[in-house]
Amino acid sequence: MTTAACLIGLGAHAQTDITVAVQLEPPHLDPTSAAAGAIDTVLYSNVFEGLTRFMADGSVVPGLAESWEISDDGLTYTFTLRSGVTFHDGTVMDAEDVKFTLDRILAEDSANAQKALYTAISSVEVIDPLTVQLTLSEPNGNMLFNLAWGDAVIVAPESIDGIKQKPIGTGAFKFVDWVQSDRIELARNEDYWGTPAALEAATFKFISDPTAAFAAVMAEDVDYFYAFPAPENLPQFEADPRFQVLVGSTEGETILSTNNKMPPFDNPRVRQAMAHAIDRQAIIDGAMFGYGTPIGTHFAPHNPAYKDLTSQSAYDPEKARALLAEAGLPDGFETTLHLPPPAYARRGGEIIAAQLAEVGITAKIINVEWAQWLESVFRGKDFGLTIISHTEPMDIGIYANPDYYFQYDNPEFQALITSLNSTTDPDARTRMMGEAQRMIADDYVNSYLFQLAQLSVAKAGLQGLWTNAPTQATDLTGVSWAE
């Protein structure tokens, strides 16, 4: 064989690492104590695992629990854990870790953003090292689904103090390094309990600017850009044989979120006026270049229980002005519009501010970074309006929490969600989910814009990537390079 032939043969070996670009950097690395989906984007399934997990099609399958039994009354869940599972620091994962994780979520001082999903768990009992029993105060038809969220991944008491900077899980990849404002590095877990990852290493790069995102992909500095932020560039990538464009759906309800306790938004007529002042399609076309599905309530259109209520808040500026007059605001009012970094927010915000101005509402745009949004808007509730995509799966239950950042307090809705959570009959659950959708649409809690499309760009040789986003995650456990 000639030297040239040898070199060609060596060059033909498949790549064994990957560089993934994402727009948002996590505020820290503990998915069980923050509302930031950016944490799950990097760590879900890769580093941390739960008792159950989401697959690419949205189905829920066994994770660290290999099986379970549910009592006839729906109040007792007995999980059998996989044997031989260790954390990345070499400690054994067992039922004590499951109990620690769930007790920590339910603690009075818990910082878990989705604690409400798990409040039906009244006790967690260790039966033996590989068996753990959950007792519920009432049946919860969503419990296996809830346990698949990133908020319920299993963590260990031995590593919990450093989890925000050095996450230690059980997944197919180990955390290596976090260079803040630049990248997070992962390496294959050679002691993984399941099918080992094909990739030896993964680097997540943070690129927030859409122009820089385009340049990085075109220069092939990154192998995969998850949730690519510049949809106007996608036709150029589709025409380039070096790349593949993945267009799917997400769980992301993109909304003009409203502080329901702040005057004048505590008046339902004002909220309804805003809804009629907004032209959804203009936002989809102008901010997302046509990618996105209009929604009229907080529910994903691909869900079988979805109700199309868009006509209830159809674009009607004259009606918006009339409603403002009825609310005692014939000359409109001024408010703030906080915009986090994603393109749907920054670009969409400019369009929405112009549309609101047409009916007399002056929205002062305040651009904030992700950490600022979490601190001032989500935790501090110091905002009038904001634009955000809620990417958690089937999360309409957040409207039953009056302390949630948009501060909607409706006892009737809270009772409905309580009944939904305790109902296991599929037909009854579908009916109740329809009622929930209509109730928040009738109250115009927020202005519902569109379901966020999942738009990603990857090099042509990558395979095993998720097209859809049933949860906000970049699952690399099944990703490989074509030979």
What does this structure look like?
The protein has helices spanning 3-11, 37-43, 95-106, 143-146, 210-218, 234-238, 268-277, 280-288, 317-326, 343-357, 370-379, 411-421, 426-442, and strands at 17-22, 52-54, 60-62, 65-70, 76-81, 121-128, 131-136, 173-179, 183-188, 201-206, 224-225, 243-258, 293-294, 333-339, 361-367, 385-390, 447-459, 462-463, 480-481. The strands form four sheets. Strands 1, 8, 9, 10, 11, 12, 13, 14, 15, 16 and 17 form an eleven-stranded mixed β-sheet that branches. By secondary structure, it is an alpha+beta fold. It starts with a helix and ends with a strand. A hairpin with a 3-residue loop joins strand 8 and strand 9. Helices cover 27% and strands 24% of the residues. Mean pLDDT is 94; it is low at 1-11. Helix 7 packs antiparallel against helix 9 (317-326), helix 8 packs across helix 10 and helix 12 (411-421) runs antiparallel to helix 13 (426-442). The protein is globular, with a radius of gyration of 23 Å. It is built from 13 helices and 19 strands.
C-alpha Rg (nearest Å): 23 Å
Overall strand count: 19
Distance between the termini: 21 Å
Which word captures the global form? globular
- Beta content comes to 15-25%
What integer is the average pLDDT? 94
Low-confidence stretches: 1-11
Main sheet?
11 strands, mixed
What is the helix tally? 13
Class derived from helix and strand content: alpha+beta
Give the fraction of residues assigned to helices. Answer: 25-40%
List the helices and strands and how they pair.
Layout: H1 3-11, E1 17-22, H2 37-43, E2 52-54, E3 60-62, E4 65-70, E5 76-81, H3 95-106, E6 121-128, E7 131-136, H4 143-146, E8 173-179, E9 183-188, E10 201-206, H5 210-218, E11 224-225, H6 234-238, E12 243-258, H7 268-277, H8 280-288, E13 293-294, H9 317-326, E14 333-339, H10 343-357, E15 361-367, H11 370-379, E16 385-390, H12 411-421, H13 426-442, E17 447-459, E18 462-463, E19 480-481
Parallel strand pairs: 1-10, 1-11, 14-15, 14-16
Antiparallel strand pairs: 2-3, 4-5, 5-7, 6-7, 8-9, 9-10, 11-17, 12-16, 12-17, 13-17, 18-19
Helix pairs in contact: 7-9, 8-10, 12-13
